[in-house]
Amino acid sequence: xxxxQKISVIxxxxxxxxxxxxxxxxxxxLNRFDLTENPEEADxxxxxxxxxxxxxxxxxxxxxxxAVELKKKGKLKKIVVAGCLSExxxxxxxxxxxxxxSFFGTEAYEGIVNDFGGNLKYELLGERLLTTPKHFAYxxxxxxxxxxxxxxxxxxxxxxxKSKPMDxxxxxxxxxxxxxxxxxxIIGQDxxxxxxxxxxxxxxxxxxxxxxxxxxxxxxxxxxxxxxxxENLIDEIANNPKICKYIDIPLQHISDNVLxxxxxxxxxxxxxxxxxxLRERIPNxxxxxxxxxxxxxxxxxxxxxxxxxxxxxKFERLGVFNYSIEENTPAFILGDPVPPEVKEERKAILMxxxxxxxxxxxxxxxxxxxxxxxxxxxxxxxxxxxxxDAPEVDxxxxxxxxxxxxxGRFYDVEIYDSNEYDLFGKLIN
Length: 429
Prior knowledge:
Strand 12, helix 11 (about 300-315) and strand 13 (about 315-320) form a beta-alpha-beta unit. About 35% of the residues lie in helices and about 20% in strands. Strands 6-9-10-11-12-13 form a six-stranded parallel sheet. It has a five-stranded parallel sheet with strand order 2-1-3-4-5, with helices on both faces. It has a five-stranded mixed barrel with strand order 14-15-16-18-17. The model has no long low-confidence stretch (mean pLDDT about 95). The protein has helices at about 15-30, 55-70, 85-95, 110-115, 155-160, 165-180, 205-210, 230-240, 255-260, 270-280, 300-315, 340-365, and strands at about 5-10, 35, 45-50, 80-85, 100-105, 135-140, 140-145, 160-165, 185, 220, 245-250, 285-295, 315-320, 370-380, 380-385, 395-400, 410-420, 425. It starts with 5 loop residues before the first strand and ends with a strand. The chain has twelve helices and 18 strands. It is of the alpha/beta class.
């Protein structure tokens, strides 16, 4: 196919998929393909799918079917499907949606580029065409996962854990900093497992080296696993001024019965000890977590235990997922006995508890000064984030100002009002 054709890359799912798409798009650009954000302007579409839970699978399928409709109308020449859903269900998808021209799994850069008649530039795989605002980016430090969680299909789609060499990650960070990136958000299936195959979980060393890259001002740790949180990582977060006092640590549940069935490798007592230690040793720490409700052996008693735990710990940030039964996972044999309406009810209850906690914590910030990075402008407000807020998932700081604020710049802001999730601030001159 002609290298002058227009290609649209559609990214679904998590930030790890975002990084994969950014690498792929850069390779397509290096091969002189034209890229467009609008699928209806494209000659070909590449869909980077998600297959994590039912809702994500449904979104991926619907996106593929929409592309098929464009192809049937003659508006599209080629459809390529890649990513997690394709990795897991390639044979079934090929049978059910024959209109798709090619299927690839995860990180299939070479196969996709070759499929379009190009050649992979191996030495430039660390370079990316950023789709985030140019002042922040995600840094994927590993691929796959070794944890045996009973509910999770990620190892089926992404394979076992494999850390990316530290020198390559530093080189990638330098590339991002040269592009104007000031905030690095560290991601992986399990970031606390980084370096384990080299004989040492050295995520703390990696964060320290990233902090020495000129131009990087904020480093944020996401997707930390609770059962093997490195001791030296606590000190690095506490003492390094460039590391945001923010940890995303998905706990999934707190009942010992549920945790044991989930194969999380940690108990309620050890979980609470870790959280108390983190809060004690890292001043002003913001904790983000996620929970699953409706797991097969979660009774009303276990759910109430989870609610009490959330009330006790008072997380600054919290998300909730309904349990999604996944074939070929250990929990599949347990069935899906909790009705959907009960899952929805439990999710709403837990989020209402968190809503009250979040509102009180935000009210405590009124009158305080925060360092804020400006992401964009919407109407009369500049939209920013403090180090308490990860991009795309957390609250925001709204600043009602003139047109003198610059996107991607840091400002000192005094908080004068708040609601459940967002803060309102004014510039400190």
